[in-house]
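Quarterly update from the structural biology core.
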Amino acid sequence: MGYLLQGLFGERSLTKVAGLFAQQSQAETSMAQMLRIGGLQAGQVRLLGPQDARASRRDLFARSLEPEPRGIARTFFQTHIVVGASGAVAGLALFAWFYNAGHPMIVSSPLLAFIALVGFGTTFGMLGGGLLSMRPDHVLLITKVRSALRHNHWAVVAHPTSAEQAARVKEVLQGHSAEVVSTL
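Predicted structure, tokenized:
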């Protein structure tokens, strides 16, 4: 499943994990422990403090929460192409099913029916691709991190590249009594 998602999305890190802390020392300790996790590099873990809540949105997101702008652009194109093509195939399959069943509207105007069904399938596929490229699962994480920073808390944000790394990061954060928020 992870391989299929990696092909659909253009980012190396599909999951983002954040731990929210009341104390800076707790956040720094958990960050240091995360960096000792095998395969996790310093660029994949970021420490955010209350001063970051006052940074402009673009700086905060680009630097800490969404560090792969090129990956996001690839995600935008790949999701639209893959899901749009899937919608076109679904529309074609629906046309073939109706045509073989002898549905009167399809049999009487096969070209118009083909254009309509494949066209709507492609359109709905592209809309689905747009929804996926917006990454709605990231909104909750970003909102919680910004809210915590505004309330003078600290956040450690990790960008694991595998499910094993994500599980280890969550274990570390939970071991330090952090409020853990993650994307899908």
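The chain has a mean pLDDT of 81.
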